[in-house]
Amino acid sequence: MNLKDLISELERQKPLKWDKKVDSSKLKMVLINDTPRLRIGKTENYFITEPCHEQIAERLEIPLRYYKRMASQIPELLVENVNCWLEMDNRSFFIRGFSDSVRAFLSERYRVIDHLDVLYCALNELQAHEAEIEDCYLSEKEMDIKIRSQKLKDFIRHRMTLLLEAFLLQTLRQGIRH
Q1: What are the φ and ψ backbone dihedral angles of 100, each rounded to 5 degrees?
Q2: Which one of 74, 85, 94, 124 counts the least CB within 10 Å of its CB?
Q3: If you ran DSSP here, which 8-state letter would residue 16 be given?
Q4: Is residue 77 within 8 Å of residue 6, measured between CB atoms?
Q5: What is the domain partition of the chain in residue ranges?
Q6: Helix, strand or coil, per DSSP, at residue 155
Q7: Could you tell me whether strands 101-107 and 44-48 are parallel, antiparallel, or unpaired per DSSP bridges?
């Protein structure tokens, strides 16, 4: 994917994204056609993306292997487990959605950082370092941008040399003390 396509895709997705802070008492997992969905409130049922399933397991402290096993073999048990933990939980969660799917199940303290915002900030810095964008990649979990810049490479190499020299000096000083 090139940069123009990446920006177009992120712009297309922007109006479809939504965020909600939701108390655990208003969350429930339900089965619809043997597929677990997340209900927010009384009637809104959302598909759950794979990364979101992993986050639900993590936030509710359900071992991921067990969570996945329940999801594939006995989805009713998964729903029962998740709902039990949600009922016992006394916190709010930050839910991120995309259209009719829940894409993230996060701590209520989560700070929103969107790919498009990161991209525009990065482009300003990359332009200052005369970077060429070679390739872009976008998935439900990540956005990757492959760049090439001799100026940036030299800048990083210089910083790394300073960091390594400082680390070596600190290590030598600590070694002398002992």
Answers
A1: -105, 25
A2: 124
A3: G
A4: no
A5: 17-107, 115-177
A6: helix
A7: parallel
Contact 66, 55 (CB under 8 A): no
- Look at residues 37, 61, 64 and name the one whose alpha carbon lies nearest to residue 48: 37
Question: pLDDT-derived band of residue 76, with 50, 70 and 90 as boundaries?
Answer: very high
Which three-class secondary structure state does DSSP give residue 3? helix
Phi-psi region of 96 (alpha: psi -120 to 50; beta: other; left: phi over 0): beta
Look at residue 177 in the predicted model and tell me its pLDDT: 38
**What's the CA gap between 17 and 72, in Å, rounded?**
28
Condensed to tens digits (0 to 9), the pLDDT of residues 124-157 reads 878 877 778 888 888 888 888 888 777 767 766 6
Pairwise CA distance, residues 62 & 66, whole Å:
7
